[in-house]
Amino acid sequence: MKQHPQKKVRTDLNPSRLLTFKIDERDVSAHEDESILTVARQNGISIPTLCHLDGLSERGACRLCIIEVKGVAKLLPSCVTFPRQDMEVITNSERVVTYRKKILELLFTERNHVCSVCVSNGHCELQNLAVELGVTHVRYPYLYPRHAVDASHSRFSIDHNRCVLCLRCVRVCDEIEGAHTWDIMGRGITSQVITDLNQPWGTSETCTGCGKCVQVCPTGALSEKGKSVAEMIKRRQFLPYLQMMRGRQDDSWQK
Amino acid sequence: MTLNSEDLHQIAKIEKDKQDGFQHRIHVCVAAGCLSCGSGVLMDALGKEVNRRGLDNWCQIKGVGCLGLCAEGPLISLATSGTYYQGVKVSDVSDILDALGGNPVGRLLCPADTAFFKRQVRIVTENCGRIDPERIEEYIAESGYESLYLALTQMTPPEVIEQVTRSGLRGRGGAGYPTGLKWTTVSKAISSTKFIICNADEGDPGAFMDRSVLESDPHRVIEGMAIAGYATGASQGYIYVRAEYPLAVKRVRLALAQAERLGVLGNNIFNTHFNFTIKVRLGAGAFVCGEETALIASIEGRMGRPRPRPPFPAEFGLWEHPTLINNVETFANVPPIIRKGGKWFAGIGTEKSKGTKVFALAGKIVNTGLIEIPMGTPLRDIVFAIGGGIPGGKGFKAVQTGGPSGGCIPEQFLDMPVDYDSLLQVGSIMGSGGMIVMDETSCMVDVAKFFMEFCMSESCGKCAPCRVGTRQIYDILCRITGNQSTPEDLAMLEDLCDLMKNTSLCGLGQSAPNPVLTTLKYFRDEYLSHIHDRTCLAGACKTVVEVS
Amino acid sequence: MAKIRLATTWLDGCSGCHMSFLDIDELLIGLAEKVEILFGPLVDYKEFPEHADVTLVEGAVSNEADKKNIVMIRARSGILVSFGDCAITANVPGMRNRYPVGEVMKRAYVENADSVPAGNGGVRSEAAGVAFQTVPPLCQKARPVHEFVPVDVFLPGCPPPPEAITFLLTELLAGRIPDMTGRTRFGA
Prior knowledge:
A: alpha+beta; Alpha-Beta Plaits; three-stranded antiparallel β-sheet; 6 helices; B: alpha/beta; Glutaredoxin
């Protein structure tokens, strides 16, 4: 079979082209290849996200960063939507805020997020999002699924009860560390992240033990061993440097 | 080897002469439906008996594709007299042969002058039930590959696209995107490598149009793809077909081998500079792989999960090259459009929906099977005239179109013409052409639950609203059908449907609430009766018990 | 001005939220002048009053008695406050939800029992020692209060911090339904 060329980044977006557009009535300027999310954050406009992490490819999957664009009926994920000249973006309309809350509530019902006994209590992005979005209770019934904890690794453990399937671990392992120990199996509500061929983490032959997956995990799903309730504080300072040094391994919007 | 027009005509002539040499030609349906009720054995028995009687040069026994009326299989047709036999058994073989040339066997006769046969207009299925799908010569004898020849030798790519655009053909896979526009976009994409993909990942419950076309006339799809390749500048194609369709896969592979051997695929087709090859890729049965970006991921060897669009496959498709993805039926429409002109095609159907549509009739309907009718045919005619109505004298309740992404259409819309826009107006979609009829004994909440369970297990799990939303909606529907619901559940149901529709990543999640929303709209009383009175109006939900 | 009639109660909880309530310290004194505490683990009334203006409910709905009581409490309360994570999310009591009730009981009262129940001849047995007759049976799952009855205010936290409780009561006393956004969080 013919060899196909290496994957490339979106060539339809020209990084040297500049444009101006509006976010929440404010005039902002951007490179053509900067996502609306990136530009919003540059301008101090906060858009909630969960699967997005600077330095990793985009997935567009958590749907929390949805925004409205004037003249477009559909809601668009700001992490994978790029600005156009004179576009008018609204990040905080009642419509998107309401949907964000509901999506967050669904995420809370999906697994067993018991904050009070979590290693990441107080340092958790899911928990913080609830505060930010004013979610004081969840209207949908909790599903209370039965999930396992894998503590077979000598230094880390994963508690699937707290996983939100953002797949940051999968991406950092593949794109930055280059080990691709993590992946996902199953589909729909039965999806689960796995190490190697769904074997105990401790027996993984590809895992380098670098711990990047633990540091990028937004919740207490991945943690260092020996940490008790509220003690797991994630350190992500390494990411921008590694990204710069190693270059992006893969392109976004593909995953 | 390269083929020219004379070669094509020669092959066609030899084949025609051969067929004309037979006094009688008996066509046995060997599509999956009839095969499953024994048409393979029947064909062997017919062949043996003909041979035993020494009639080999007088009577031809031929396996053909779908004859349409799957409910009455195994079906055979006598091509010379136009007689159809239904429910034929091996024990009927002698009687059938005895009756050749005389009066047909009355007890097996399938009336051919009924609406089921008369009302159909066959474009996509014109060869179904007439040619042996396993022989390219028979396809060529029915003007096969003439369109490709015409396109390659007498038309420029823009002229080909012009004809497709003028025909008004819209995508037959579900959304009804204008095919000409899609082709134009891909042809405008700047890339030395482009791909054509045929989406044969037919996953809707109750739908079997694409399977039948591939089983009955695979060359038509191949020819359509090659023409698309020429028009858009692509030289490689993929047919992505479900592994659950082994017969279709076998026949497509056979057809590809034959086409390559003859030179209608390969390099310098018809002595032109056009090269085109097609590969088959098997899907492992995930419904979501019918979504174009998930399908592409699957072909590339990655997990079948959709990605956000834009960029669209027309720009960034397979291995990041511009890619044209069309459905089986869409490609199957192309050869006749090129042969007879876009104007001819545009003369069939309604103002905004041109041509014909193949539907798979299933559920509570007499004539279960495959039909092809002009766009705009009223739903009532499809169900009652062509479909033969509801069996057992029961009352009609609803017809479900578009599979898990479609909706349930109630009796009040029976006189609506079936086309893309009308279906959309009542909250359903054309979809790929599955039509499931429900009678008065079907509980519409239960129907909604069935489709939601399907979507729940087929959701890829990538985006949160679909992954969790399908499960939550399914749970609510279970509570309603199982006598556990509260009035608040109804509000939550609507709330979740709205959330999924507006925030899901791909078409699966965005359209998954449709069966729930349409049943809520048209059959709300059934929901309310379940919730407030704990009774199932249709008497279908056995779990609902009377409470004091 | 008439005093606000306040009740507090717990279902399946650990009393931590009530402890946090006591942690509002000297504010309790001021509070005592404005409210009349009708019922609760902190006072010694046996029956839930016919009417309370405000009721704080701690804990998840976990057994058949909780199920019955919460309906009665709702009916007799003006403003019902889900007080703490257990009432709002089922929290720690909900951690048993992924196991069958029988398995949970066995684990708690047989496998983890320190001493062998009396009257069993000194032999540890799986069946002995679980007093199902006198204890209300557990529901299949511990669930949040608002899945059973409408709740007016949600005060998350495990426990909710005293400041949040103070804010809640101050607002309620002023006749406003407090907006708790940003003042506390799940697991606080």
